[in-house]
């Protein structure tokens, strides 16, 4: 729960806090929040008989102040007082010496106070100076509604289930048990006048220190202050909607809370009964707890490959990336591939021959399936995302003779800094360990190879293997590079196109908008997802075509003259190897790109920069027809970059 401060904390302010339930075994926390920073963190730890006071700034915890837990706090309701004096906070208990906490800056940056549990806050005058008539507003961190109450003291409580459910029937606390998946079960009553509702689940987790874990668990979106949210439209077919949801706790969690609610428009829908949490064992009786469809079966004669990746599933609405193409070609080469995407939304369990697709939430269940059956040792591929699930599987498989490959497609540290993609889950300690323990590491570019070695990988174990071109495209290569196609392109030169994701951390929307406005005679067609605010691309000569399949791209690009790769200049884009580059060449296009390491000196490619703008380089590219020598260079080049060859080379590096 969080209370918003109406005014900054000033020297002389005193906060009186009533703490409920410290006598239980669970930690109770109170945090003074400033953006992503915690300027005061108070953790009551009855199991250790201490109170810990600390701060966390820019993701780093400071030096702890520890005091003995006063006996007066081991009561149903205990009093706590915090007095502020510039950069000093004096924390006093009913007995014992006060704790003095110093900071380099004062506490005026604090914007709110957060309890590490479901709790109610009633603020005193020192917290809400603008409150009128002795009333203050408080926000329920789970549901977001505003409530009103008398200005009294702050009331904090621990995470005891019976106390939480007495306050709100949709809330439940649960333990995170080793080798078990929590399964949230709930029933939503059917509204009288509507059958389509939005069910909302919010979760929050704590670690062993009683600190709220700020990472977002799989399948949820961050809602702030350690709360993650999942919303879903559901249709009630009978009198009620019954649902079971596998929760995947983040690394280090020992305790969790979940809150279930439902909406029809802005109106809340009552739950038929309070939610419950059951547990699925990930270490025993696989055949009883694992869903049948989560058991990819391959011939016992096939060598297994498990491909755990940050890429999406095999679906028509998902752009294919390296893991999709390699999985398909491993299957063609006779391996039994289990593909585990960063998703639970899977439409087809066997999308292509030789490949079985597995939900991410069934990760541990499938691991136990492997450990309990006589699988021959195979290959485990960690593709980009080094998380706790990946390490559990790689460690156990390595003990059983499997070969571990770490595939580096992006710079995860750069993605985290840019707030892009899977970067929010990036853990430098886990990646460093993966670099040191993997049998082989394959990167898509030289800069990523150098980075892996800097993280501790053995130089001889790291190989650079760029992306490639799908087999189906080679029929188009012959057509798009024919004499007729070359003559047609040499006569028009009026259209530029882009195919791929348009996410904020990568796509250079400013450069594209500026080029389009400066070239009103040239039409720009942009294909792909991820552009949420297209106002900067509102020029009349820009067409936003949305997401398309690869086949639709080839059909649309038949009228293009140049394909663009407009990436923002940062460490992420410099080290990547864009698959669309190979597809542009197969489509018969010339390319204008930002500075990407792998594309320096690449066939038919011009590079734009601050000195030579995208518009200038597009003009140069459009003005020069493709020569027959360039045509032969491209056709020869594409013949050596097939995904089939990439798959075979990967296996060679692994000794298969």
UniProtKB/TrEMBL annotation:
Residues 359-468 form the Glycosyltransferase subfamily 4-like N-terminal domain. GO terms for molecular function: glycosyltransferase activity. It comes from the Bacteria. This is Glycosyltransferase subfamily 4-like N-terminal domain-containing protein. It comes from Methylorubrum populi. The lineage of its organism: Bacteria, Pseudomonadati, Pseudomonadota, Alphaproteobacteria, Hyphomicrobiales.
